[in-house]
Amino acid sequence: MFKDLNRGQIMGVGEKHFLWPGLNAPVMKGSEIVQIKELKADPAYKENLIKIRDQMEKRKRAYVHPLERGWSGTKLLGKWIGPPDPISGEEFIGFDTKLLVVKPVFYMKPNFGRTKIISVLAVTGNANGLVGYAVAKSEDLRTAINNAKNKAGQRLFRVELDENTILHDFYSRFGSSKVFAKKKPSGYGLSAHRCLRSICDVIGIK
């Protein structure tokens, strides 16, 4: 563990207290030049210094369960961030949200020039076929995450399931991306990109 040994110390003050012009005192006092001189020592100086150092925060690395760590290390992508906020007193019971995209976006303002904001894509669901997703942007990361989570909760739609799998095989294409989905028996698992696996977890496909 590392400690800041300078914490609690004052410039020019130690076991022997000196007046140092230009360091802990002005160089000139009126029209006279201040001279270096020894002041009265503080007998409790060493005890106070040890007390301050002992009060330093002992930072411990928080343990995060491997299944809650996201896709890579301490990155936000792939992490569960909880259900959307309640709307008119109605809570999203059984819902949980995952972050799929967190990236910086730059645009030009006429008065400030190049400005950076954060873009967040989140998907939320109850693992029983009810799912929603949304994109939100903000200059503050936490605001963007909360807005994306809450917007996803307001845009829910139903995905028909056959127990814990899809109803039938299908193929979809968007641009150069192709998705081949095949119905599999229970216990087969998911063989897909990590982003698609996260979406399946939220929907309830296992």
UniProtKB/TrEMBL annotation:
Predominant subcellular localization, coarse grouping: mitochondrion
GO biological process: translation
Gene3D superfamilies noted in UniProt: 3.30.160.20, 3.30.230.10
One cellular-component annotation, GO: mitochondrial small ribosomal subunit
Pfam families for the chain: Ribosomal_S5, Ribosomal_S5_C, Ribosomal_uS5m_N
Protein location: Mitochondrion
Kinase listed as a keyword: no
The S5 DRBM domain, residue ranges: 113-159
GO molecular function term, any single one: RNA binding
Entry annotated with the keyword Oxidoreductase: no
PANTHER family: MITOCHONDRIAL RIBOSOMAL PROTEIN S5
Similarity annotation: Belongs to the universal ribosomal protein uS5 family.
Protein name (database record): Small ribosomal subunit protein uS5m
Protein's organism: Euroglyphus maynei
